[in-house]
Each structure stands twice: as C-alpha cells, then as structure tokens.
Design goal:
Number of strands: 12
Helix content: 25-40%
Largest sheet: 8 strands, parallel, barrel
Radius of gyration: 20 Å
Bound molecules: ligand PBG
Structural class: alpha/beta
Strand order of the largest sheet: 1-4-5-8-9-10-11-12
Shape: globular
Number of helices: 11
Oligomer: single chain
C-alpha cells in the first residue's frame, strides 16, 4: 500500500452520507440469532440473573419467536430449564420425545415454519451433576459415553423438526458422530452448528443461574478451552470442519475477537459468535446505572463482533437490536 502525502483520511468521514459509502461492515437483523429460555407450566418468569430476559412457557415462547421472525431475525436457539425431579446422572430426559424441547420445536415450527429452530446439544440442563457430559464415580467426564447420549439427543430434536443442532458440550469426536447418526436416519438436511472454540469462561455465570445448571462439583476445564489458548482454537475448528460441521462457533464473543479473526482466516465455513450472558449483563447493568448508552454500546459490541469475522451472532440483544435497526435508529 502506498500513500501519497499529504493525505487527509477525514475526507472520508466528513458527512453521514460518505460514512455510509465507505462503511466496511454491516449489521442487520438477518445476522442475529435469539437465544431463548423455556420452562414447563403455564406462565413465563423473569430471570433474576439476566434482567430483561424471561424463561418462557410454551405459549409465550411461540409468540416471542414469531415476533422475532417478523423483525427479520432468522433463527432462535432453545435452552430449557428442566425440573429438578427430571434430572438424572444419565440425563435420560434429554432424548424424551415428549420432553420440553421437542414440544417447543413442534410448537414453533407449526406456528412459524420459516423460522430456523436451533437446539443446544449438551447434557447440563438434564444431568443431576450439572456437567455437559456424563460423570464417572471418580469425577471424570466420560467422553465417548457422552457422545452416544448426545447422538440420541440430537436425533430426538431432529425428529421433532429442528433445523440445526448445535453441540455445545466440547466432547471430542461429537461432530462426526452426530453427522453419522443424523444421516443414518435420513436427516441429511439437519445442519450442525458446532461450538468449535468454546472457552471455560466465567462469563457464563448468569446463564447457569437462568437454568440452575451450574456444575454440582468441579469446573468445566477438562472439556472447555483454556482462555489463554489461541492456536488450540484453530485445531478445534479444523477438526470440527473435517468432521462435517456446517457452521463453526466461537464463544464467548467480545473477549475472544482475536480467535474469531484467526478462525476466519483459516476456514471458508460460515462463522458464528455467541455474545454470552455475562457480556449481556455487563452492558445491561452499566446501562441501568446510567453509566453507558445502551443502544450505542450494544451496536458497537455487535459491529465489533461482525468486523472480527462473524457472519452471525447469537445475542440476547437480538430483538432490541432488530427493532432499532428497523426504526433506523442506529447511530453510526
Ligand atoms: C451449556 C451452555 C452454556 C452456555 C450455552 N450452552 C453454559 C456452560 O457451558 O456452562 C452459555 C451461554 C451464556 O452464557 O449465555 N452447554
């Protein structure tokens, strides 16, 4: 790149119109995925650890999801709060065909067939130990035994009509196993969005509060990644791609923009980023205290994630962002 001096970069910023012309990254509702919490029973409930979010009952879930779709949001991802009495060491409830998630998938697809339904594939909401995998008596998280259960879970979601399954468990070899299990039952059109680089992050705290799914003992560091590692994320991404993932994900998003950018340079697959509960809560609470301008900070956080290389973003701000985009109220 050669630059002739004097050059005045401010010429390209002199008016809103020219800033529109030279803008390198766009954000629209079509880039957003709304994570939704759901629970049994006939009424919805605000989530104390995530102000502004609710655990929806099925009827309200369908209504909210339909509204999101009308705002231009193409997809939702479902996270169930499983009643304690249904949690077991074997997490069997995760593949119950009449369980909360399959009922929710069927209800959403019936009301709003165009909306993509993504499901979370992991055992933590169902497992009495609160881990994403099965726990051996000595406390080890069992890999291959867990993968077998994840396959049953994904098939249960596919039978109910899920468009995309999203394994968030970080067990080895699960993408290949899921692809094989889905294809064996002729679900060749069900996509896999793989949490390829999912870090062992304290930013998940509010989410675990929402689902009461925190691990009963130990932590998730033997399966989720060390926040200090970047090269390892490239290996995880390459593996999931080779195993047949359709979309790769990085999670959390904001503190891991370098990981997004590096994976972007190493794959031609679409890339998703998850702006997680702790990222949401930090913005929400600072805004509630009057310390930052919520609308502006939300836009900036999301455009930053797009700029780093994400094609799509899972964010609890999806609806409010889509509303502001529709109203043309995005200050840039
Ligand atoms: C569990 C799962 C978690 C999140 C999504 N799926 C929590 C965890 O791994 O402990 C976190 C999402 C968020 O914090 O918003 N499989």
């Amino acid at each position: 790149m050669s630059i002739t001096l004097p050059f005045r970069p401010r010429r390209n910023r002199k008016t809103a119109a020219i800033r529109d012309l030279v803008r390198e990254t766009e954000l629209n509702a079509g880039h957003l995925i709304l994570p939704m919490f759901l629970q049994e029973g006939g009424s919805s409930e605000p989530i104390s650890s995530m102000p502004g979010c609710q655990r929806w009952c099925l009827a309200d879930l369908v209504k909210e999801a339909t509204e999101a779709y009308a705002l231009g949001i193409p997809a939702v991802v479902l996270f169930p709060r499983i009643p304690d009495e249904q949690k077991t060491p074997g997490a069997e409830e995760c593949h119950n065909p009449d369980g909360l998630v399959p009922r929710a998938i069927r209800a959403i697809k019936a009301a709003c067939p165009g909306l993509l339904v993504i499901t979370d594939v992991a055992l933590d909401p169902y497992n009495s130990d609160g881990h994403d995998g099965l726990v051996a008596p000595d406390g080890q998280i069992l890999n291959d035994e867990t993968v077998a259960v994840l396959c049953r879970q994904a098939l249960c979601h596919a039978h109910a009509g899920a468009d995309i399954v999203a394994p968030s468990d970080m067990m080895d070899g699960r993408v290949e196993a899921l692809r094989e299990a889905l294809d064996m039952e002729a679900f060749t059109d069900v996509s896999i969005m793989s949490y390829a680089a999912k870090y062992a992050s304290a930013y998940y705290g509010p989410f675990r509060g929402a689902l009461e799914s925190a691990p009963k003992s130990g932590d998730k560091k033997t399966y989720q990644m060390d926040p200090a590692n970047a090269r390892e994320a490239l290996r995880e991404a390459a593996l999931d791609e080779a195993e047949g993932a359709d979309i790769l994900m990085v999670k959390p998003a904001g503190p891991y923009l370098d990981i997004l950018a590096r994976i972007r340079d190493h794959t031609t697959l679409p890339l998703a980023a998850y702006q997680v509960s702790g990222e949401y809560l930090m913005i929400k609470s600072a805004a509630a205290a009057g310390w930052v301008d919520e609308a502006k900070v939300v836009y900036e956080s999301l455009i930053g994630i797009r700029r780093a290389g994400a094609d799509m973003i899972l964010t609890y701000f999806a609806k409010e962002m889509a509303i502001r985009l529709r109203e043309g109220k995005v200050s840039r």
